[in-house]
Design a protein that fits this description.
With 120 residues, the chain is an alpha+beta fold. The protein has helices spanning 3-15, 26-44, 92-106, and strands at residues 51-57, 63-72, 75-83, 111-114.
């Protein structure tokens, strides 16, 4: 980089603010997610990242499980998968996951991505 560009960048960096927010709003989080999605879209050559959810309710209309997914190119991103404690181990999570995978495949997904923790 030439000296002019370096000097300009250094000046801009001095004007930047660093803010730490230990209790961000959903909107704060969404802003950062959207910026990353915009950046990633250039590499995936896609224009849209459709989201979908599948919800499971009991006989009292109470939510007992759900899955939130995003389709990014050929990837199915499983953002959240939740099952109420007393329904765990009964196959509900597997049912939600298989249904999400089917929707992903119907929309051209050939790969899936899920982050989880061993206690889940």
């Amino acid at each position: 980089m030439n000296k002019y560009i370096n000097a300009h960048l250094e000046k801009r960096e001095k004007l930047m603010k660093h803010i730490m927010n230990l209790s961000p709003s959903e909107d704060d989080i969404l802003k950062i997610c959207r910026k990353l999605q915009e950046y990633n879209a250039a590499f995936f050559e896609i224009e849209d990242e459709p989201n979908f959810i599948i919800s499971q309710f009991d006989e009292y209309d109470e939510l007992i499980g759900g899955i939130v997914c995003t389709i990014v190119g050929q990837w199915l991103e499983i953002d959240f998968l939740w099952v109420k404690d007393e329904y765990r181990g009964r196959g509900l999570g597997k049912k939600l996951l298989f249904e999400a995978e089917r929707i992903g495949m119907d929309n051209g997904c050939t790969k899936a991505f899920l982050t989880t923790m061993n206690f889940q």
